[in-house]
Structure formats: structure tokens, C-alpha cells
């Protein structure tokens, strides 16, 4: 399991809440249900978080030149 502080831009799913976390720091959350689709995108260095195609948070932090994608299924 990765140290949450080392994940620059991520979404943590717990129960029916999806939390935006950047560098391990909580930013905002949104309720979700089975079938919802989430996306983290970077355009011109701006990071945005979307649920079902609608942006619900735009980061104040700029993305670096390289990002890695990872996922972990709940156990």
C-alpha cells in the first residue's frame, strides 16, 4: 500500500463518499453510488476531478511534468 502523502492527486473511496486527496491532504468530497464514473484529468497543468462527466473540484496545485496512475481495490 502506498503512503497517502506520496500520492499527489487522488480519490479515496470509502462507504458512499469519494474524497479528493492531494499529498494526503483532504480537499473535498462527493457522494457516489455504484456505476458512477470518476476521472482525474490534467489540462495545461490544471488538475480537475469529475464524477459522471461533471467537474466537482479543480485543484489549486499545478501538476508536474510526469504523473503515474495507480489503483487499489478494497479488501
What does this protein structure show overall?
- This protein has 75 residues and is mainly beta.
- It contains no helices and 6 strands.
- The strands form 2 sheets. The chain has a 3-stranded antiparallel sheet with strand order 1-2-3, with no helix packed on it. Strands 4-5-6 form a 3-stranded antiparallel sheet, with no helix packed on it.
- A hairpin with a 2-residue loop joins β5 (46-51) and β6 (54-62).
- It starts with 9 loop residues before the first strand and ends in a 13-residue tail after the last strand.
- 5% of the residues are buried.
Topology (SSEs and partners):
Elements: E1 10-14, E2 17-22, E3 25-31, E4 38-43, E5 46-51, E6 54-62
Antiparallel strand pairs: 1-2, 2-3, 4-5, 5-6
Listing every helix as H and every strand as E from the N terminus to the C terminus, the arrangement reads: EEEEEE
Strand content: over 45%
Q: Bin the helical content.
A: under 10%
Multimerization state: single chain
**Backbone structural class:** mainly beta
